[in-house]
Amino acid sequence: MEQKEQPFGVIGVVGLGLIGGSLGLDLQSLGFKVHGLTHRKETAERAIELELASKISTNPSILTDCSLIILALPIKELLDPTKELLNCLPQKAVITDVGSVKEPILKIWKKLHPRFVASHPMAGTNKSGVESGRRNLFQNRTWVCTPDENTNQNALKLVKLFAEKLGSRWIQADARAHDEAVALISHLPVLISAALLKTVEGNKDQDLFPLLKELASSGFADTTRVGGGNPTLGAAMASSNTNAILKGIKNYQSIINDFEKLIKEENWPDLKEQLNQTKILREEFFSS
Amino acid sequence: MEQKEQPFGVIGVVGLGLIGGSLGLDLQSLGFKVHGLTHRKETAERAIELELASKISTNPSILTDCSLIILALPIKELLDPTKELLNCLPQKAVITDVGSVKEPILKIWKKLHPRFVASHPMAGTNKSGVESGRRNLFQNRTWVCTPDENTNQNALKLVKLFAEKLGSRWIQADARAHDEAVALISHLPVLISAALLKTVEGNKDQDLFPLLKELASSGFADTTRVGGGNPTLGAAMASSNTNAILKGIKNYQSIINDFEKLIKEENWPDLKEQLNQTKILREEFFSS
């Protein structure tokens, strides 16, 4: 009955952290039946209290009935899925993930499941864990999928429909291009933002430190937000997207060196011109 | 009559950009009479339309009646004030500024006026110019002043009362310590954020660029906000706080190099530990 009315049938969500928990909340409020799988018993108990899914278990067999399964797992687990999980993924189900790198995940999963669709919702906060799920996380966010020539087209359509139900804007891209792009606009920002925090931390034992805390305002808060995010995710991004990130760091270092040179030379007109260009570029990215 | 009821009498605001215009709007709504001085005729006309002050002129003589005058001018003009302006500042008036560097401004102005109080409201947006004034900009922001042993204590008290009227939290600090602190939490962020934008701009003519724009989300928006700000202000910060900024850049470069090394060595546990430390530090800065 259910499957006739709803294209997705029972939806499985593997992992009930920020992404998985938020998916569970939204999907239930859209009227879908959600089966949540989580590793640890304590997490399952808390997820039940928080009503993150209609049914929650630590036993992968909970996925047997599902026709669409979202792997909301850390990158590390996506790259090295357990046998127990793999054995419980129905061959007929559509499987998608939410990992922030796509080429290595697609490479592994295309061999593991015939109806796997690699995808990445561009949604996040600096929260993680079972307490962090929240409604409307995906609303108006970009949901990018990275199919290749072997991706099942019906499976792809289903995942698109799913993302749009959650209010996301759907785009398709090549997996490698996706990874290069997120290296620059997502992974590199984490590192440069964290490096700013480390620079300030260098004054931790100095007289200046209380004043730094007093004076830090919205500019510092914004610039350091992603550098104060989930350390496991940050390290996983770096380990799974290493080459693109190293290329980004190299270009970034050279620009910081240019800025340093302009300041040492007291070349204020050229520094101002550089800052003028960055102002224009940012307006191009965020026109509103 | 007015001066008996209001400790400030007529308040002069010199410069009607983001800070000056916002001051004018708030002060008028608090019931104060505000005299606004601006350089250019076109700005004065627009400021009158926007009602940024009770009376607006391009003639410095408008300041003659004022008992408190806020110099809401760019750093460059604060460091090199015109004779016309100086001649119209009443000797009895209390004068304060809003410049984001304090040591060089205090050094100049302590010789120019007996009742000068160096101060810096930690409030800003990425807007500038006569159109950018807005209400409640100073609400719940820190307003730091940097008196020295010669600062007139009554003048200092008046500026404190003034900042608190606007809803700011008042703190006092040594001018040099202030400048070192803002180099780290305000000026360095502008440069590292701008460098991220320049890194992305390096792909402007590549196929990747449209995808970068598609995928850029809140993390990139936050990390690049201050790097897309006012170029004149950014260059002025660097030119007036050069040594502290260069010291910050040097430490920052060394941390970026450390991160690069960890990634090249694929030392994910240490990278994760570094990111864990920055997460803890950020929570210390922004606990709420």
Describe the model.
2 copies of one chain form a homodimer. In chain A, 52% of the residues lie in helices and 11% in strands. By secondary structure, chain A is an alpha/beta fold. Chain A is globular, with a radius of gyration of 21 Å. In chain A, strands 3-2-1-4-5-6 form a 6-stranded parallel β-sheet, sandwiched between helices. In chain A, strands 7-8-9 form a 3-stranded mixed β-sheet, with helices on one face. Chains A and B meet through helix 8, helix 9, helix 10, helix 11 and helix 12 of A and helix 8, helix 9, helix 10, helix 11 and helix 12 of B.
Supply database-style keywords.
288 residues, disordered N terminus, 9 strands, 13 helices, homodimer, 52% helix, alpha/beta, 3-stranded mixed sheet
Oligomer: homodimer
- Largest interface, counted by CB within 8 Å of the partner chain's CB: A-B, 95 and 95 residues
- C-alpha end-to-end distance of chain A: 45 Å
What is the H-and-E element order of chain A?
A: HEHEHEEHHEHEEEHEHHHHHH
Secondary-structure topology with pairs:
The structure is a homodimer of 288-residue chains.
Chain A lengths: L1 H4 L5 E4 L3 H12 L4 E4 L3 H9 L5 E3 L10 E4 L3 H5 L3 H5 L6 E4 L5 H10 L3 E2 L1 E3 L20 E4 L7 H13 L3 E4 L2 H27 L6 H8 L2 H7 L6 H10 L1 H23 L3 H18 L3
Parallel strand pairs in A: 1-2, 1-4, 2-3, 4-5, 5-6, 8-9
Antiparallel strand pairs in A: 7-8
Helix pairs in contact in A: 8-12
